Amino acid sequence: MHGLCLDDLLKCIETISKSQLEELELKTPIDGERLKAILLNLKRRMDLLDCRHFSYLVVPKYANKNGFAVPNLDQLDVLLRRLVEMLESTKCKEVTSSLVDFFFDAIVNFVNQHSNNQEMPMAKILPLITDSFHTLSRSGFDSPIQNILCSTELHSLSMHVFSLPPVEL
Length: 169
Known about the structure:
It comes from Onchocerca flexuosa. There is one protein chain. The chain is mostly helical. It has one domain (4-163). It has helices at residues 6-21, 32-49, 55-58, 73-87, 90-114, 122-137, 144-149, 152-163; strands at residues 29-30, 120-121. It is elongated, with a radius of gyration of 19 Å.
């Protein structure tokens, strides 16, 4: 994948999704298990696409050091290098993968609740997936977002990041 912006990532997701789902007709019956398999296959294809964990999309100007007109450029360089290293680390990849799996499980549970755990045509499941966003993104107690923020994986990654020595100014 070549490109330095979020639009490129979204285009890549769209391309992979189209290639994986092009043979799946809207009238094809889908249940929660099959939906989960589809989502995990899309995730697997994205994982295979980029071994750098898309860090260059989060820190696109890192490759262009002249892109920053700020004092203390050396300190900024150290911080950006650390950010890229952290994003490309195995620990960050594991946490991200775990969080994506958690959201996939939440989507499947939402669809199962609203379809009474029965097969439905893909055309009826797609709106349920869209409708699940409101429920999944709410910030109430025991919501998916709260559970992720309290996860041991995220805590472990945070502890690792904050254990690094400070950047000298």
